[in-house]
Amino acid sequence: MSLYTASSQTVGPYVAIGFKPMEIRDIAPLGVAGERISVSGRVFDGDHKPITDGVVETWQADGEGRYHSTEGAAGANGSSAANRFRGFGRILTDGKDGSFRFTTIKPGRVASPAGGKQAPHIVVTVFMRGLLKHLQTRLYFPDDPANAQDLVLSQVPESRRGTLIARREADGGASYLWDIVVQGQDETVFFDY
User: Fold this and answer.
1) Dihedral of CA 14/16/17/22: which sign?
2) CA within 20 to 30 Å of 3's CA: 10, 72, 148, 170, which one?
């Protein structure tokens, strides 16, 4: 007997039915320290049509650059808000216009494998019907001085970096806009991990 790799399966046409009970739009509960932000955008296909049956998953560090662990974000047991910060979100795209929105705190800088620190970012994974393998990318924040030294962002051609950097909403507050384009013109940069 030999083992072989089975083909990947798409998310299927029933995303809302399967994922809706597990949706997490508010990633940082009230009381978690850090700058509270919201991110909204839309997911588009190669023809710039909205993807109305997709899932956007997020993974991030807390405001001090620590990822969640079984001991809690701060490395201590207890029920404080800091210990309830998971850093994980799962957001379904809207069934009419492909929009998504989540609230969290701006992540802190995390260690870089090459030494130093990475710029604040959120890791994003996209699932959708017809996609055999999920897509992984990153969301960075505009005007952050750490972007210039980020190991990952610096490897992206300068002409394409804008697809990874959110825009501040016109009010200048803590609301960001960021669209994801899965292929074609203005395609978001995706990474293989």
Assistant:
1) positive
2) 10
What CA–CA distances, in Å, run from 165 to 64, 71, 122, 132? 21, 32, 11, 26
| Predicted pLDDT at 73 | 43
At residue 129, the pLDDT reads 80
Q: What whole-number distance in Å separates Cα of residue 179 and Cα of residue 164? A: 9
Q: What's the distance, Cα to Cα, between the start and end of the chain in Å? A: 31
Class (C level, CATH) for 15-181: mainly beta
Name the residue type at position 94: D
pLDDT along the chain (193 residues), means of 10: 60 72 89 94 95 95 87 48 80 95 96 92 92 92 95 96 95 90 94 85
Each domain of the chain, given as residue ranges in start order, spans 15-181
Q: What are phi and psi of 44, to 5 degrees?
A: -120, 150
